[in-house]
């Protein structure tokens, strides 16, 4: 009897181990009957890890979430418990009876399949049967909001857009990514860097929520009228509480994928008033000060000095042109060097921009640099203001005198000559004529007379049209800057071709052509250039990676050429590569 007892115990232990080692792979659904407006969750569970999972095709349903993968690995009374789950969220396409076919997986070299599951879809229901599913809970407890500082700004007035993600206290977010970045057409834009996502407490529609600031952007509208802001779209994994609890009584969370959007917004941009608008207004909007200075006021002829025109303050500093320096013809003035020291925060652009001219006097004397005037639109008072500099006198101490030089040129004309009188001084005047009377129709009131009389009036509407187009073109400050940069790019590319064989001149012209091309196409300044930013901007505008890398390699060639020997063949190859790359970027840029 004792032997039989031991053998029975042994058989029981073997059977238990065999059952525990048995592989289980099954499909579980949240419900088998649902309305056409409800969602279905299906979990494919296994008790051992597997490979090459193949889901069914879910005929009759749209997959609105998933697959989400979760793994549970625990020990209880010395025994290991393992569970791996692939979860999908389905939306029925129509009413009817549908069969979710088998899912397949490989575990330990063997192929396992789930049993088919039949689902009945009924008409839409007012209230879903049972408690709301996790997807509905997530939709009610997470919101993406775009907050605009001002919805009715002036042209070129700074506004800010702050994107906040609100999450209810009962819900969590495990990860998120930007699915679609807004493109701010008709706006100059700059994102403000956010260091870390700080969770803050706030209110959403009167209820307590937690929120994080995901993005801050400063915008300057470049057109008037109703302008649309594209929405920001996020893919988020939301943690939603379930009806199940752990051993400590805490609610277990389930993960639900959600796509949230801030929605599109409309900004109604006001034009700047025409009343009181100065004729030399260049589009400056904000609050500014003007400073005109020279490096020295006394020097000798052929020496040089620098004159700087600087505008500082708060406003659209990168979006207008500085007033030009005027000087007497005896002062040789070179093209200015433009500098920008501008920082951008939620209040907009602040800092200064300047043009520095190099001036070389040719003659001795005192030369005035006339006052320089600058006008801008003041947002605080909503009026135009003008600021002017003082006149500056340049005293050239030594050098040739302009008056003596002019006198020497005309000295040969002052030599006196003896004039012999002529007794018939008016012989060239005719005293008789051979005129004949005109016969035929008079010119007065003829067709030709009326035609010539009316033609100038016909040109008046054309002149008005051309004038208005010119005013619109002048008001488009950013477009003017881009066109100017585009012209410079073509100019320097042409100069580079002429300088083939002269290494330094060629690569300087080629580099300037590439920089001005970027300024024209991407609306960024030379001070903002770096390879990482150029790569990001071109990639964001959907330029292929190979073309971007080729463009960057040409810039590197321009930098390295100053320190390495270069043949004319290499220069020709770099020129051809630059022209081809610019052409490719033009075709691909979005």
UniProtKB/TrEMBL annotation:
Q: State a single Pfam family of this protein.
A: BatD
- Annotated signal peptide: 1-21
Classification via InterPro entries? BatD
Q: What is the scientific name of the source organism? A: Winogradskyella aurantia
PANTHER family attached here? BATD, PROTEIN BATD-RELATED
Question: Could you tell me what this protein is called?
Answer: BatD protein
User: What highest taxon heads this organism's lineage?
Assistant: Bacteria
- Which residues, by range, are in coiled-coil regions? none
Please spell out the taxonomic lineage of the organism that makes this protein. Bacteria, Pseudomonadati, Bacteroidota, Flavobacteriia, Flavobacteriales
Q: Which UniProt keywords apply?
A: Membrane, Signal, Transmembrane, Transmembrane helix
List membrane-spanning regions. 448-466
């Amino acid at each position: 009897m004792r032997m039989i007892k031991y053998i029975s115990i042994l058989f029981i232990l073997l059977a238990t181990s065999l059952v525990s080692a048995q592989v289980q792979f099954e499909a579980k659904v949240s419900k088998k009957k649902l309305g056409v407006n409800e969602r279905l969750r299906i979990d494919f569970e296994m008790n051992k890890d597997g490979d090459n999972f193949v889901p069914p095709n879910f005929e009759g349903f749209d997959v609105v979430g998933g697959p989400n993968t979760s793994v549970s690995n625990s020990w209880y009374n010395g025994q290991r418990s393992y569970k791996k789950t692939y979860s999908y969220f389905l939306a029925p396409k129509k009413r009817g009876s549908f069969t979710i076919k088998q899912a397949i997986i490989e575990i330990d070299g063997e192929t396992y399949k789930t049993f088919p599951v039949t689902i009945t879809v009924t008409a839409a229901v007012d209230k879903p049967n049972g408690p709301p599913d996790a997807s509905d809970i997530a939709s009610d407890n997470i919101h993406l909001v775009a907050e605009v500082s001002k919805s009715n700004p002036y042209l070129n007035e700074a506004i800010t857009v702050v994107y906040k993600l609100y999450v209810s206290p009962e819900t969590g977010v495990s990860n998120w990514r930007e699915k679609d970045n807004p493109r701010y057409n008709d706006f100059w834009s700059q994102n403000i860097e956010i260091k870390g996502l700080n969770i803050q407490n706030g209110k959403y529609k009167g209820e307590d929520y937690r929120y994080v600031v995901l993005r801050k952007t400063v915008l300057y509208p470049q057109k008037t009228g109703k302008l649309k802001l594209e929405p920001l779209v996020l893919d988020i994994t939301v943690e939603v509480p379930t009806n199940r609890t752990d051993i400590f009584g805490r609610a277990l969370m389930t993960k639900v994928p959600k796509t949230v959007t801030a929605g599109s917004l409309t900004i109604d941009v006001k034009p700047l008033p025409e009343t009181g608008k100065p004729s030399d207004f260049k589009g400056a909007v904000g609050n500014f000060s003007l400073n005109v200075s020279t490096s020295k006021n006394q020097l000798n002829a052929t020496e040089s000095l620098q004159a700087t025109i600087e505008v500082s303050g708060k406003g659209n500093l990168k979006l207008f042109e500085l007033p030009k320096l005027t000087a007497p013809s005896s002062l040789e003035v070179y093209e200015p060097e433009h500098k920008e020291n501008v920082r951008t925060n939620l209040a907009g652009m602040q800092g200064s921009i300047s043009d520095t001219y190099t001036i070389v006097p040719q003659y001795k004397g005192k030369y005035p640099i006339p006052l320089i005037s600058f006008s801008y639109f003041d947002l605080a008072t909503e009026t135009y203001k003008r600021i002017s500099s003082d006149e500056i006198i340049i005293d050239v101490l030594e050098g040739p005198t302009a008056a003596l030089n002019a006198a020497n040129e005309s000295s040969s004309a002052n030599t006196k000559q003896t004039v012999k009188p002529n007794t018939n001084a008016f012989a060239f005047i005719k005293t008789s004529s051979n005129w004949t009377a005109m016969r035929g129709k008079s010119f007065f009131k003829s067709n030709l007379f009326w035609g010539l009389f009316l033609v100038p009036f016909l040109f008046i509407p054309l002149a008005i049209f051309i004038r208005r187009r010119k005013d619109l073109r002048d008001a488009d400050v950013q477009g003017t800057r881009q066109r100017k940069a585009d012209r410079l790019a073509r100019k320097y590319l042409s100069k580079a071709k002429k300088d083939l064989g002269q290494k330094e001149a060629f690569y300087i012209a080629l580099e300037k052509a590439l920089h001005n091309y970027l300024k024209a196409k991407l609306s960024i300044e030379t001070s903002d250039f770096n390879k990482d930013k150029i790569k990001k901007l071109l990639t964001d505008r959907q330029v292929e990676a190979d073309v971007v890398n080729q463009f960057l390699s040409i810039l590197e060639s321009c930098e390295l050429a100053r320190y390495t020997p270069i043949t004319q063949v290499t220069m020709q190859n770099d020129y051809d590569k630059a022209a081809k790359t610019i052409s490719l970027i033009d075709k691909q840029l979005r």
